[in-house]
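On clarity, I found the account of how folds are encoded harder to follow than it need be. What matters is that the chain and its backbone geometry are given together, residue for residue. The format is easy to grasp once an entry is in front of the reader. For illustration, here is how one protein appears when written out as sequence plus structure tokens.
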Amino acid sequence: MATQTPPGECPQCWEHAHNKRIHRALGPREDCPQCVNHMVNGCPNVTPKKKSSWW
């Protein structure tokens, strides 16, 4: 992965959203099986966000 995944973001979702070559092989209107599986089953590997020290 080229960039660091921000806290609270799923690494797979982040990579698939920001790396165009992952979906390059898909045809027009073809769904990515990994993305569909992730949407149906949720994001199991979400890292917790840092607690805000504002309050």
Q: What stands out?
A: The mean pLDDT is 79. The chain has two helices and no strands.
